[in-house]
Design brief:
With 367 residues, the protein is mainly alpha-helical. The protein has one domain: ABC transporter involved in vitamin B12 uptake, BtuC, CATH 1.10.3470. The protein is 69% helix and 0% strand. It starts with 13 loop residues before the first helix and ends in a 15-residue tail after the last helix.
Length: 367
């Protein structure tokens, strides 16, 4: 019998997103009824405040941008067999570093110097936060979940001290960035988005998502990181330096989390303040799971959670904001359920096509 044609690769991330979205709409209706609001009115308000107006679209894109970076951060570590849940601390120190550098540059510094300088220092700071967990995992066998949680707490304690004592801040924020260090808003190109916080950080995040995926698939270091995540012992037998690849993967994961500051510091506030970007690190885990290792899936998942966050503000007159926090938490559970359902469907199709089990990945001999 002829085998059914496989679905296009680009459509695979759409199924879990669609399943999660359907569950979220159902839960929103139930929450509306629980608070005495008409579900249809709540849905209309949510749609109007998100995708119903250019301003709402801009806000969704702004809120999705940090989630693209943190979703990528977790995904890169996950492909190497690591669980980096320290993105909260990594993005926080990156934001402080970007705010400090951007405010310290001479006032007339051009953008092609100021922006790369801020980004370079920020991603280096974020990678530095990931360095200790990376070394502890690769050399001592300490699980990165424990060490990254520890680093989150350390950064939380260090940031106020650094702001007040080292930088001399009096309001728990850095000074304003020099003009050249700010990223342009999207409304410069799309005037309809005027008033929203969306900046060119969003297309940058999308480009980074696809570039990171291509690097992991095509570059030798990226392929070896993925092989280590699949079977570290086989990689050791083939001569691959497993600890080295684990450290590199964790550093890259931390650096990607540091990219959040392009949206929050360079593209929005124009300075760093304590708590800026908080929460994006943990939500990024759900984004990565829903994205299922595909850059398009990660972007769509980030946009979905960005829509939820903006919708919470849009329907505040109908449903309390705390209820939307509950909905977001339930959405994370739905992400796991949708991801599991999609994996089961893929396995069922594989059995129906007679493909059998996929062969074990072949590891190229080390150079």
């Amino acid at each position: 019998m002829p085998r059914p044609a496989p679905s296009p690769t680009w459509t695979r991330p759409l199924l879990p997103v669609a399943l999660a979205l359907a569950g979220i709409v159902l839960l929103l209706n139930l929450i509306s009824l629980a608070f005495g609001a008409a579900p249809l009115d709540t849905l209309r308000a949510a749609a109007a405040g998100t995708w119903g107006t250019p301003y709402g679209i801009g806000q969704v894109l702004f809120k999705a941008t940090p989630l693209v970076f943190t979703g990528l951060s977790f995904e890169v570590g996950f492909r190497a067999g690591l669980f980096n849940i320290g993105a909260e601390g990594q993005l926080a120190l990156a934001g402080l570093a970007a705010g400090w550098v951007g405010a310290s540059l001479p006032h007339g510094t051009p953008w092609f110097v100021a922006v790369p300088a801020c980004v370079a220092v920020a991603v280096a700071a974020a990678a530095l936060v990931a360095l200790l967990p990376a070394v502890m995992r690769a050399r001592l066998g300490v699980h990165e979940i424990v060490s990254t949680i520890m680093m989150n707490s350390i950064v939380d304690g260090v940031l106020p001290f650094a702001l007040v004592t080292l930088l001399g801040a009096t309001t728990l924020r850095t000074a304003d960035l020099v003009p050249g260090a700010s990223l342009p808003k999207l409304d410069h190109t799309f005037p309809a988005l005027a008033g929203s916080a969306a900046s060119v950080a969003f297309p940058i995040a999308v480009a980074v998502a696809f570039l990171a995926d291509a690097w992991l698939r095509r570059a030798r270091a990226g392929r070896e990181m993925r092989w280590v995540g699949q079977n570290a012992e086989t990689c050791r037998a083939e001569g691959i330096d497993v600890p080295r690849r684990q450290v590199q993967a964790m550093l890259l994961s931390g650096a990607l989390a540091g990219g959040v500051m392009t949206a929050t510091v360079l593209g929005y506030k124009g300075y760093y303040e304590l708590g800026l970007g908080a929460g994006a690190g943990f939500t990024g885990i759900a984004v990565a799971l829903l994205g299922r290792g595909h850059p398009l899936g990660i972007v769509l998942a980030a946009v979905l959670f960005g829509t939820l966050e903006q919708a919470g503000l849009a329907i505040n007159a109908h449903v309390p904001k705390e209820a939307m926090d509950v909905l977001t938490a339930c959405a994370i559970v739905l992400v796991a359920v949708a991801n599991r359902a999609s994996l089961l469907e893929t396995a069922r199709r594989g059995r129906a096509s007679g493909a059998g089990e996929a062969p074990a990945p072949q590891v190229e001999p080390a150079l």
